[in-house]
Design goal:
- The protein is α/β, with parallel strands linked by helices.
- The chain has 10 helices and 10 strands.
- The strands form 2 sheets. Strands 1-2-3-5-7-10 form a 6-stranded mixed β-sheet, sandwiched between helices. A 4-stranded mixed β-sheet has the order 4-6-8-9.
- The chain binds ligand T3D.
- The site of ligand T3D has 22 residues, from helix 2 and strand 6.
Amino acid sequence: MSYQHILYGCDGGVARLTLNRPQRLNAFNDAMHAEVREALAEVGRDPSIRALLLTGAGRGFCAGQDLDDRAVAPGGDAVDLGASIERNYRPLVLSLRTLRVPVVCAVNGVAAGAGANLALACDLVVAARSASFIQAFCKLGLVPDSGGTYFLPRLVGTARAMGLALLGERLTADEAAAWGLIWRCVDDAELEAVATGLCTQLAQGPTRGLVATRQALHAAAGNSLDQQLDLERDLQRALGYGEDYREGVAAFVGKRAPRFTGR
Ligand code: T3D
């Protein structure tokens, strides 16, 4: 499929999805949502893909919803934003959180509104030092969506989540890393190499084990210790039957690097 609003390609087991509306800081319109959905479906279908890199073109990562597409004005007609969430943002966040491969987000510039929370839905977030995160929703009279009210308190605690959401202030990438919102902040010139390196490492890893680890870590917040131990047992059982486990043990015993196949 050819795309107009994203760039998509695959190399060495790593798929790369670049939001590509730089003149709008990669804000989402319906067409870009549809293209991202199609690209994520392609990642789901292609067994040769073992990791996904998500990033943005130009000086921004993503400015959330394209507000030029919202024909609202004081005193004018209302718009059903719930329909937009249901059609676009909800499936997007759920796809990223359940994708069959690990997802690295390279935040190359400002991430605002749904754009910030899209990044937080990814497994590893690495940001350029010049990037920033803004929960811009409060400036529009909206609630943080795309998982914002779920991710923020879990990642940085309620006090900081509340400050970010109620004030809509810009959080620098350095602060985001120091607060535990993201994995790492790196110099701008290093972002590409660091993000690609992470993807390459993950793409050579035991894919099913990595994705099961994500599943278990996400489940932990809602589980009792007992439930979590049950989940770990069940996941470990399934993984223990897999080829990657056998390869991992054989590589360790044979004092060589493992050659995982994702099976
Ligand atoms: O509606 C629904 O479906 C519900 C779901 C909502 C989810 C959401 O994401 S709501 C939140 C929407 N996003 C925002 O409120 C962020 C709006 N943007 C900004 O606040 C600022 O642009 C930034 C802080 C992100 C960056 O500021 P700055 O000064 O670096 O850049 P700029 O000059 O504001 O933006 C550059 C261009 O991008 C500019 O266009 P121009 O003047 O050069 O022609 C600007 O209008 C455009 N742009 C930036 N963000 C958006 C946008 N155009 C449309 N929609 C945007 N969200």
